[in-house]
Amino acid sequence: MKAAELDLVLDRYEPVIGLEVHAQLKTASKIFCGCATTYGAPPNTQVCPVCLGYPGVLPVLNAGAVELAVTAALALGCAVHETSLFARKHYFYPDLPKGYQISQFDRPLATGGSLTIVRDDDAEKSIGITRVHLEEDAGKSTHTESGTLVDFNRCGTPLIEIVSEPDLRSPREAYLYLRSLKQTLEYLEVSDCNMEEGSLRCDANVSLRPVGRSEFGTKTEVKNVNSFRYVEDALAFEIERQAGLLEAGEEVVHETRLWDSARGEARPMRSKEESHDYRYFPEPDLEPLAVDATMSEGIRSGLPEMPRVRAARFVTEHGLPAYDAEVLTATRALADYYEAAVELFNEPKEVSNWVMGEVLRLANERGQSVRLEPTPQPIAPADLARLLENKQGGRISGSAAKEVLTIMVEEGGGDPLVIIEDRGLEQISDATALETEIEAVIEAHPEEVEAYRGGKVGLLGFFVGQVMKRTKGQANPELVNQILREKLG
Amino acid sequence: MKITPEEVRHIARLARLELTADEVTRFQVELSQILDYVAQLEDIESGVSAEPTPPDQPLRQDVVEPCADPSALHGQAPDFVDGLFRVPRVIE
Amino acid sequence: MTRTVSATAISANVRSGETSAVDVVDAALERVAALDLNAFLSVRAEAARTDAADVDRRVAEGESLALAGVPVAVKDNIALRGGPTTCGSRLLEPYVSPYDATAVTRLKAAGAVVVGKTNLDEFAMGSSTENSAFGPTRNPHDRDRVAGGSSGGSAAAVAAGAVPIALGSSTGGSVRQPAAFCGVVGVKPTYGRVSRYGLVAFGSSFDQIGTLSTSVEDAAQLLEVVAGSDPSDATTRPEPVEELAAAIDSWEPRGARIGWPKEYFATGLDPEIRCACETALERLAAGGAEIVEVSLPHSERGVAVYYIVAIAEASSNLARYDGVRYGFRAPADDLQSMYFRTRAAFGAEVKRRIMLGTYVLSAGYYEAFYGKGTAVRARITSDFDAAWEQVDVLLAPTTPTPAFRIGEKVEDPLEMYLNDIYTVSANLAGIPAISIPYGAIDGLPIGVQLMGPSLSERRLFEVARFLERGVGSGSSP
User: Fold this and answer.
1) Rg of chain B over CA atoms, in angstroms?
2) Among partner residues C199, C313, C325, which is closest to A52 by beta-carbon distance?
3) What is this model's ipTM?
4) pLDDT on residue C474
């Protein structure tokens, strides 16, 4: 839908949007069994009798999953309950082995948090978090002509479901919320949040009400909004559709719709009378989950600095412009990288320029992300720092430094000085050597010398260029300028 | 408590049980009888459903312990092709 | 019917080298083959001989095995690696278990040899073994009568002398009731005392693996082997297992307080069973025990609670039998038809319970049924807690009647359910209970039941052994 059409709708109706986000937790093993959670393994190789729901098996809760879920809940400002209960949620589907999903229902892990988004007009808005609970993922179904094919590798991967309050008022806000949530979960290293791999998934509840009205309208649930690209599209589609109904005097039907990104529409799922009758009851195979104050406090004290706080510190302590601070804190890995480099070469703005510029560019070219762990990419901060030291010391020119960095990345590091020597890239900062070159240039261009001395000072650039040409770009430009002025003056 | 044939069919659908017409009639009678019997609980107040027993959830450390032989599990499937469990297609 | 050599005696003989595990198991396999009660669903003759040879080797190497060479039967809802675990159901007929239940692992570690898997009501749902998809088990005392259920196959196999001990499972009375009907000792341990890992779930918050044996001592020995906490079952109790079998003979009733729950002796109880209970109480009193009348006011509602909460859990536990990953699948062109037709292969009783369980959990009914059921369950538990203030052990009938005729109650599910009236409460409260043979009516055995507080198995065995000495070991019809 065109933005203009949506704007027209938004003039008359206010959308009320709440998001339910499922994030896979970054554990090594599944939530109730010892199977690996590695993405991309051959189908049905990471399965066992427990996650396949064999007769007689029982779930045993993964301590790592609890810790990550509590971490996320605390970072989102939720109250983590000392006792929470697991419950069975029943429905039949081929990728749900037991006929029920072990989830949490009326006694979730945590409730009542919030997440701040920064709107496009720079205004901050706090979005309420209703609850955060733990549950298990289902397998993956693929529908083909010959039948539905199921891979259970994903089945039993720990998930947290994060339910927002219906506080979002536009598709754009929903997008910003999702982006902020993703950034938060990534910072916490709780989830990879990779939408392409399905480790972050989103369902949206949407309703419309006439502008100025306080009661909510009838909502629909849009499922399968599984890419950042489609969040705004899917919500805009549904808002426009609902507005069309309301304008025509029709009623919005409470239903579940499935977003089809290929067709750009949200189609109703076949409405079944029992589709909402999940028959929840407390999971008898698991005891209540206890998270005592000691555990909560231990996790709280280990929470990393969150992006907004970190960006503010980069501005006040490092003197970086706000723009730099925001870019550098986009991911925890990038911010960590920047800080590691500043630690070794204490010129924050210079490091910022290089990290935001050449380092990011070189990583992108290689399809990498900038990071420290487990191996530094695209280059170790120590190597970057050494390069910048030599640049500052005048042994490498700015233009040569970029070339040296590229070589270092290609060669997986190395001593910048050796690279400079090997390729003859060392900057000539020896005044005597430069004087010889400059005198040769002056001698070769008497007419230009005449003109310069006659007042055409703009010709200085010409002389500099000639010197650079003779020195293959290795002359220290500042020194060349200085000596030229003296000799021509 | 009288259960209607419609309720019987609704419950059977929730539970994915195919019932014959005979079974619907029989379950209508039997379920009604059983529900009448369990109705003796109605006069008991449900208020005392106390807090669950002091929680003591034994947890498993987050360590990968893979299944020794997943292929033995594949062999149990009624229909398994190219590494995937197959079921008849889903008709929407 | 052969006189059974006890597990304790077999084990001692194998350990001492007086006999070999192979010989013991061979003889047991012969008895199993000669049995004509439909007690076994599968017999693992070759595997059992191999296992027995292995036990002989271990004994020769000096291992001290508590159940060296003891042949054991295992109810067919307990997983045994490499063989069937049918649960008495068509849905699991093609299924082969890829793993051992924890209880089976512990049996094997103790040198016991599993000779076969025994018949049961489908998914342990029933009180007569008539609900098995593979036909009813007959009572060795009267072939026209039921062996009880759901662990009817295990009870009949032990009563007929084919094996000295067997594992069963209890959700509402499925060990004690068949034990009483067949005249053997049946134990339902404290909830969480034996790992449920590998026990196919029926009512998860009730289910416990139990023991069937010809003597109290064997029951204690068997439970000692299979009991204990298990990292694969989050609901097992962490407390260490005390010695259960050693020196239980030395217990005397003097100073013990034995409770007599008056609600258990109300209408519907066969007068001769009442009489047997009174005889047992008199014997204890004569030994110096104090007999105290106690009240368990909510016990009459136990069956109703059971048929809400256990059945709700059952409807959930049986959702996994969908024909997708293992077991039976009915041919179908689309997914929903596959579900409906596959699950239509459940037997009538299982369907009835799935229907009822689904109903009580469905939208709008949860509070009225499940909520109410758990509330009354809590009251039944507090009734018992109050009783333990007054007494150490409760003595009661196991069943209202002796074994009934095959076919007698199949048409009346409610009447069948009421068979559990004296046994369900222990499952609801999670407490241990034991049924021991105590006399007979016209050749049909009678069971007397003892119940105690959580983890009081040792005390129950002591009292049961005292009573057993009065009637002689086992019951030989």
Assistant:
1) 23
2) C325
3) 0.96
4) 40
Count Cβ atoms within 10 A of the Cβ of residue C162 and give its class: 0-12 exposed, 13-18 middle, 19 or more buried. buried
Predicted confidence band of residue C433 (pLDDT cuts 50, 70, 90)? very high
Check residue A377 and report its DSSP letter: B
Q: B63 and A28 in contact by Cβ < 8 A?
A: yes
Chosen for mutation from B7, B9, B11, B13 (greatest number of chain C CBs closer than 10 Å) is B11
Judge whether residue C144 has pLDDT over 50. Answer: yes
Q: How confident is the model over C199-222, as pLDDT tens digits?
A: 999 999 999 999 999 999 999 999
Q: What are the tokens at C237?
A: 């109790």
d(CA A78, CA A84): 14
pLDDT at site A436: 86
Prediction pTM value: 0.91
Region C314-336 average pLDDT: 97
A161/A135 Cα distance (integer angstroms): 7
Q: Does A263 touch chain B (CB under 8 A)?
A: no
Q: For residue C97, indicate whether it is catalytic.
A: no
Q: Does B13 sit within 8 Å of A29, measured CB to CB?
A: no
- Classify residue A190 by burial, with Cβ atoms within 10 Å: 0-12, 13-18, 19+: buried
Q: Determine the pLDDT at residue A433.
A: 82
How far is residue C263's CA from residue C245's CA, in Å, rounded to a whole number? Answer: 32
Whether residue C477 is predicted with pLDDT greater than 70 in this model: the reply is: no
Identify which of C344, C367, C379 has the shortest CB distance to residue B44: C379
Residue A90: both structure tokens together = 């029943």
Q: Which residues pair with A371 in a beta bridge?
A: A377
- pLDDT 10s digits, A199-245: 999 999 999 999 999 999 999 999 888 777 788 999 999 999 999 99
Cis before residue C150, ω within 30 degrees of 0?
yes
Strands C257-261 and C290-294 come out as parallel
Rounded CA gap, A70 and A63, in Å? 11
Look at residue C57 and tell me whether its pLDDT is greater than 50: yes
C-alpha span between C19 and C395 (Å, rounded): 39
User: Which residues of chain B fall short of a pLDDT of 50?
Assistant: none
Task: Tell me which residues of chain C have a C-beta less than 8 Å from any C-beta of chain A.
Answer: 77-79, 85, 87, 92, 95, 97-99, 101, 196-201, 204-205, 231-235, 312-313, 315-316, 318-320, 322, 324-326, 335, 339, 358, 361-363, 366, 370
**Helix runs in C35-164, H state only:** 45-60, 102-109, 152-159
- Separation CA C229–CA C236 (nearest Å): 5
Tokens representing B69 are: 């032989």
A462 burial via Cβ count (<10 Å: 0-12, 13-18, 19+): middle
- C25, C69 Cβ separation under 8 angstroms: yes
Neighbours of A434 (CB within 10 A): 20
Question: What is the distance between the alpha carbons of residues A99 and C277, in angstroms, rounded to a whole number?
Answer: 45
DSSP C146: E
A330 to chain C nearest CA, in Å? 41
In terms of DSSP H, where are the helices of A322-428?
322-328, 332-344, 348-354, 360-365, 381-392, 398-410, 416-423
Mean of the per-residue pLDDT values of chain A: 91
Q: How far is C1 from chain B (nearest CA, A)?
A: 40
For tokens 């229907």, the residue is: C355
**What is the distance between the alpha carbons of residues A362 and A369, in angstroms, rounded to a whole number?**
10
State which H helix or E strand residue C118 sits in.
strand C113-118
In chain C, the percentage of residues whose pLDDT exceeds 70 is 98
C174 belongs to the catalytic site: yes
Flag if B81 and A47 touch (Cβ within 8 Å).
no
Give the position of tokens 């209880």. C103
Strand partners, B27: none
With a cut of 50, list the residues of chain A below it in pLDDT.
1, 273-274
Is A149's Cβ below 8 Å from some Cβ in C?
no
